[in-house]
Amino acid sequence: MNFDLQELSGTFSVLDIVAAMGLSFVLSTMIGYVYRGTHRNVSYSQSYVQTLVIVGMIVALIMLVVGSNLARAFSLVGALSVVRFRNAIKETRDVGFIFLTMGIGMACGARFYVLAAVAAVAICLIIIVMHKFNWFQLNVQRQVVKVQIPAGGDHTPAISDVLIKYTTEYELVSTETIRGGALTEVFYTVRMKKGAEPSDLVSALQERTSGQRVTVLTGYDQTDL
After folding, report:
1. Of 103, 172, 182, 192, which is the most buried if we count CB atoms within 10 A?
2. CA pseudo-torsion sign 62, 64, 70, 75
3. pTM for this model (two decimals)
4. 196 CB contacts (<8 Å, ≥6 apart)?
């Protein structure tokens, strides 16, 4: 039986391998530092950033393997389709960084070195600028107001008067009875007027509801009396 082992690494030089893997590592690392420097929330994961670097290099390797061979490309797609990821992406922004490192890895593996470098630097600069100047920020902070009302009376007009005074807009979300029907609890979403304090809103509502419990919930704090 004749075994014919064919070595295909000669289709690209050692310099091509070093350049593709080295450049993908450098650019993916740069992307990782940009991600770390522009991350705002508490969901930062060191493992995720390391994965960005690994993904960039792996995609570059895959592109070297595939080359211009369509049959090899289809077989790799079939092999990689069995991979399943169970960790959910916490932010949509994280998906963009994954695609960025994949794109840079593809460019490095296809030996478009200048394209990879220029694209990585340009996109990273755009990300830094968006972070620094807080592009597309919508500075709208809404509160949830929970008011308990004694049963047997219509306090809605009185509550509406207070909400009109302290908020620019409000909307009734739900109404339900509590404590065996002794109290009615209503929920509103509101936007506070500029300069209005949640504590003032709470005090005004308590005056109209016979001192019953009033709670104002925001994204940052809670005023409860």
Report:
1. 192
2. negative
3. 0.63
4. 166, 167
